[in-house]
Amino acid sequence: MFVYADNAATTCVSRAAIDAMLPYLLEDYGNPSSLYAFGQKAQEALQEARETVAKCIGATPREIYFTSGGSEADNQAIVSAARVGARHGKKHLISTKFEHHAVLHTLKKLEKEGFEVTLLDVHEDGVVRLEDVEAAIRPDTCLVTVMFANNEIGTTQPIREIGALCREKGIPFHTDAVQAAGHMPIDVVDMNIDMLSMSGHKFHAPKGVGVLYARKNMPLVNIIEGGAQERGKRAGTENVAGIVALAAALKESCEHMEENTAKIIPMRDKLFAELSKIPHSKINGSLEHHVPGTVNMCFEGIEGESLLLLLDRDGICASSGSACTSGSLDPSHVLLSIGLPHEVAHGSLRLSIGEYNSMDEIDHIIEVVPKVVEYLRSISPVWDELEKGTRPHLI
Amino acid sequence: MALYSDKVMDHFQNPRNVGKIEDADGIGEVGNAKCGDIMRMYIKVSDGVITDCKFNTFGCGSAIATSSMATELIKGKPIEEALELSNKAVVEALDGLPAYKLHCSVLAEEAVKAAVKDYYDKNGIAYDPEMFNNLEDCEHCHE
């Protein structure tokens, strides 16, 4: 059985998205900037997509900027706030320890340029505290950026409250909503969001297309210079087919959100319930504040990459935050940020499921994971020591 | 291209000589759980020859595969030959490893040396300590 359980990494493109985009690849392939009717047809498609996306998040079409994806949107939002802040002598930014690298590395770049960055603690449950945000705010703070939902552990953040606080203090508020868009209700007005990033391929649109929402009058600085596309804020001929697909996919996801969530939650809960029966395992992140489909657990005494390779042999696609899978010597910064010791973080497993998964697939995962964990423990000198009592159990 | 060669995948999925030797003549353990890999190598020695060899490994696919290959390369060999086993030989026997996984092969080489050192120590066999200079440090932790 093949089970794709890595929907937080990417998703399949939905039929609705493909049907929506194909005409703009095959027939109406004109350049939206062209004057003739054939080009204007593409321009109209863009406008329609912009309206659709705006509607899905409670924005107006003029506040929607299409980008190459979530990373570009994050970069543009943060750099814009920093550049504008610097003009007013404000060079302090607030974020969290467990943001996506698109945010963290952009902040790092700004730090090298002389900006100051405060990264908030996310506590053991993976949730930012409003009082921590408030305490970090300074007169020279030019941006608060806090992700809507974490990509590894799936915890959601008090976005509305942070937004209200920032609004009250007059500080722009950005949220990386890549893991939330299409999966959780978002209303930028109600949630006091000034800027928001999303990525199409996390909700069944193709890769390479995303959105930056920037509230009216929120100044944007260009990351990509060139033509006057996207109201002069993002140069480059628009990815018309991709944008049309993104709009179709987001619309479909938002329209079916309740039904999808109702399908996903029992599958997720079964994974949590059954995999928790594995001794010395741990669920990472608060379950109270959580996206529907993400399951992140640690299994003591084993290492994540070997776990993934053996799951792959049994047809299961998943991910891990071990050092070997992160391509560095340290395990995932997200797992470390919630206080997990390195040894434990190396044995992490993320399963992220969506509405395309079935309970049969969940049962397959539940059958395979405990066997693989048991096998890896049987050959692990760390597990041997844990069992003998010469090494203390940490979970 | 796949992350690992077919040989690495074979040794990872069907590791040779995995397990423990309860009455081992030498046991070597290298690596660090904090860094994500620990190898423990057991050897049986008779008349200066490694007659049996087993391993336990906590680590990624290449850590398990290099441990497995190292045991194959030293089993049945005189101790002197086992001490000459280089990480490069392990990598070659596995048809290569991705560059960022080479440290796993270094660990495999060190695990063999650590087991031999333990055998020497236990049996009061004199040796040049220079041979085992690098074993105390997990290089990969200090990079």
Keywords:
heterodimer, A: alpha/beta, 7-stranded mixed beta sheet, 3-stranded antiparallel beta sheet, 14 helices, 12 strands, 13% strand, B: 143 residues, alpha+beta, 6 helices, 41% helix, 19% strand
Q: In terms of topology, how is this protein built?
A:
The complex is a heterodimer of chains A (395) and B (143).
Chain A: E1 3-4, H1 15-26, H2 37-57, E2 64-67, H3 70-87, E3 92-96, H4 101-112, E4 116-120, H5 130-136, E5 141-145, H6 159-169, E6 173-176, E7 195-199, E8 210-214, H7 240-255, H8 257-275, E9 281-283, E10 294-299, H9 304-313, E11 316-317, H10 323-326, H11 333-337, H12 342-345, E12 348-352, H13 359-378, H14 381-388
Parallel strand pairs in A: 1-11, 3-4, 3-5, 5-6, 6-7
Antiparallel strand pairs in A: 2-8, 7-8, 9-10, 10-12
Helix pairs in contact in A: 1-7, 2-7, 3-4, 8-13, 9-13
Chain B: H1 6-13, E1 26-32, E2 37-46, E3 49-58, H2 61-74, H3 79-83, H4 87-93, H5 102-122, H6 139-142
Antiparallel strand pairs in B: 1-2, 2-3
Describe the protein.
The complex is a heterodimer of chains A (395) and B (143). By secondary structure, chain A is α/β, with parallel strands linked by helices. In chain A, 42% of the residues lie in helices and 13% in strands. Chain A has 14 helices and 12 strands. Chain A has a 7-stranded mixed beta sheet with strand order 2-8-7-6-5-3-4, sandwiched between helices. A 3-stranded antiparallel beta sheet of chain A has the order 9-10-12. In chain A, strands 1-11 form a two-stranded parallel sheet. The longest helix of chain A is centred in the N-terminal third of the chain and has 21 residues. The radius of gyration of chain A is 22 Å and the shape is globular. The relative contact order of chain A is 0.15. In chain B, helix 1 crosses helix 2, helix 2 crosses helix 5 and helix 4 crosses helix 5. Chain B has 6 helices and 3 strands, in the order H-E-E-E-H-H-H-H-H. Chain B has a 3-stranded antiparallel beta sheet with strand order 1-2-3. With 143 residues, chain B is an alpha+beta fold. Chain B is 41% helix and 19% strand. Classes of the chains: A alpha/beta (395), B alpha+beta (143). At the A-B interface, helix 9 and helix 14 of A face helix 1, strand 2, strand 3 and helix 2 of B.
